[in-house]
Design a protein that fits this description.
This protein is an alpha+beta fold. It has one domain. Helix content is about 40%, strand content about 25%. The chain contains 3 helices and 4 strands; from the N terminus they run αββαββα. A 4-stranded antiparallel sheet has the order 2-1-3-4, with no helix packed on it. A hairpin with a 4-residue loop joins strand 3 and strand 4.
């Protein structure tokens, strides 16, 4: 059986469009890891992946969420290592904004 750390490593190597990973632990603590290269700090994507793999307490991981370059997010199934279909981050916010604008417009007319 492939370990969760190996599954995450394989996922990151096969999906270079992933720019951030958020790990949520069983105790509710969340930690973000950037996968973007940083020329100023001489951080390569490989170094960022290596840091993530060594720092995370894999036995305590409850959820893993990934963010793509375009802002979409999806979760990785910690049991199977499969990525769910990406969800566009904008959709929910746009609907909320529209409702707020309608409410504001209504209150201004009164």
């Amino acid at each position: 059986m492939v370990s969760l750390a190996d599954q995450v490593k394989q996922m990151l190597e096969s999906h270079p469009e992933i720019v951030e990973i958020q790990v949520e632990y069983l105790n509710g603590e969340k930690k973000d890891y950037s996968m973007e290269e940083d020329g100023e700090l001489s951080v390569t994507r490989e170094a960022a992946i290596s840091h993530l793999l060594s720092e995370v307490d894999w036995a305590q991981v409850d959820e893993i969420e990934v963010e793509y370059e375009n802002g979409d997010k999806s979760e990785m199934d910690v049991e199977t290592g499969e990525l769910e279909a990406p969800e566009a981050d904008d959709d929910d916010d746009d609907e909320e904004d529209s409702e707020e604008e309608v409410e504001e417009a209504g209150s201004k007319e009164e």
